[in-house]
């Protein structure tokens, strides 16, 4: 790929025909992996990303456990075939950094205190890369976490903004990313709080302020797409199917729920005494199979936790 002669046409449109404040088309599929607790396949322009969430499950080896909280591990990985030049498989400096900052992007929303001694593993696999893969991976991971029923205060949405030929542009394409003057990936909560911010290149203070306004608008658009994807998955189930599929064991029957993106849980007297049933609400604006109980520690980690081969070095802390 060589540097384009110009980045904008006579109408001010970008190389792929977008306006400066327009994001690339995004397509999300929820629950695509049968062995993951939650998963998401996301296409964003020419990016293709798969996210899988496993857990909460008991953390092994036990010496890595934190008695007051679950830990979140996040692995961002680019497939060897995802870029023009093959990437050497395995972690590298870039993927280690992206994994770390992406894990931190979820810290303010994932309610880890509910699962002491547990681990929640997030895997983000980039299958095809075309600029903005860390943000694409975060968007997919947020959906996969919600799909796994991990209690969260809200979704996380991510988008980059940058500068090309002196103009601010939202959601950089590949040429804009490679040959632009600045690249500013940002992740935010649904309340607009910033949970990740990185920057390559230079912006003036005024440009930076304007860029942040642009990226917040982009983040809101992505949040809507994420919500729609979750709604379309969970609205297809009839309440009885959800009851059958999602009876969650809890010791306390009187849990009241949900500051979060979740489908609310509620005690169903017809079900055995110590169970909770996830139900949908027709007029519920909230999305995702997330349920939250204020009193911590009630969900047992998975039984299947004999993965003693987890190494200390794999934990992104
Ligand atoms: N890229 C590549 N090889 C690499 C890393 C990145 O070809 O080893 C490409 C890939 O298309 C990626 C883009 O460069 O999407 C921009 O990479 P950057 O490090 O800015 O991260 P991203 O924008 O993907 O989050």
Distance between the termini: 36 Å
**How many helices in DSSP terms?**
5
Which small-molecule species are bound to the chains here? uridine-5'-diphosphate
Strand ordering within the main sheet:
1-2-3-5-4
C-alpha Rg, in Å? Answer: 20 Å
Percent range of helical residues: 10-25%
Please state roughly what percent of the residues sit in beta strands, choosing from under 5%, 5-15%, 15-25%, 25-35%, 35-45% or over 45%: 15-25%
How would you describe this structure to a colleague?
With 317 residues, the chain is of the alpha+beta class. It has 2 domains: 26-234, Ribosomal Protein S5, domain 2 (2-Layer Sandwich); 239-278, no CATH class. It is 23% helix and 25% strand. The chain contains 5 helices and 13 strands. The protein has helices at residues 93-106, 133-147, 174-179, 205-234, 239-245; strands at residues 26-30, 38-44, 47-58, 71-78, 118-128, 156-164, 167-170, 182-189, 194-197, 200-201, 247-249, 265-266, 275-278. Strands 1-2-3-5-4 form a 5-stranded mixed β-sheet. Strands 6, 7, 8, 9 and 10 form a 5-stranded antiparallel β-sheet that branches. Helix 2 runs parallel beside helix 4. The two termini are 36 Å apart. Mean pLDDT is 84; it is low at 253-317. The structure holds uridine-5'-diphosphate. Uridine-5'-diphosphate binds at residues 83-84, 87, 129-134, 174, 177, 183, 185.
């Amino acid at each position: 790929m060589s540097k384009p002669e110009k980045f904008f046409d006579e109408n001010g449109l970008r190389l792929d025909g977008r306006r400066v404040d327009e994001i690339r088309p995004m397509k999300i599929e929820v629950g695509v992996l049968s062995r993951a607790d939650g998963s998401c396949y996301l296409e964003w322009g020419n990016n293709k990303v798969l996210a899988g969430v496993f857990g909460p499950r008991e953390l092994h080896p036990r010496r890595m456990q934190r008695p007051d909280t679950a830990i979140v591990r996040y692995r961002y990985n680019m497939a060897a075939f995802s870029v023009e030049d093959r990437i050497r498989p395995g972690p590298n400096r870039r993927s280690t950094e992206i994994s770390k900052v992406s894990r931190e992007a979820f810290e303010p929303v994932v309610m880890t205190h509910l699962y002491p001694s547990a681990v929640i593993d997030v895997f983000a696999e980039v299958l095809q890369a075309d600029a903005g893969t860390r943000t694409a991976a975060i968007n997919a991971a947020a959906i996969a976490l919600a799909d796994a029923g991990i209690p969260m205060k809200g979704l996380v949405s991510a988008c980059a903004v940058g500068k090309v030929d002196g103009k601010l542009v939202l959601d950089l394409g590949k040429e804009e990313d490679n040959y632009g003057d600045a690249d500013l990936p940002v992740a935010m909560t649904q309340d607009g709080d910033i949970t990740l911010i990185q920057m390559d290149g230079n912006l003036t203070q005024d440009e930076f302020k304007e860029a942040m306004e642009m990226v917040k608008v982009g983040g809101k658009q992505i949040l809507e797409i994420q919500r729609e994807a979750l709604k379309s998955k969970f609205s297809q189930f009839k309440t009885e199917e959800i009851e059958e599929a999602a009876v969650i064991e809890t010791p306390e029957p009187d849990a009241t729920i949900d500051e979060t993106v979740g489908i609310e849980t509620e005690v169903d007297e017809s079900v055995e005494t110590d169970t909770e049933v996830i139900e949908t609400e027709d007029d519920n604006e909230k999305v995702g199979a997330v349920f939250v109980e204020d009193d911590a520690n009630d969900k047992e980690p998975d039984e299947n936790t004999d993965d003693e081969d987890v190494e200390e070095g794999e934990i992104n802390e």
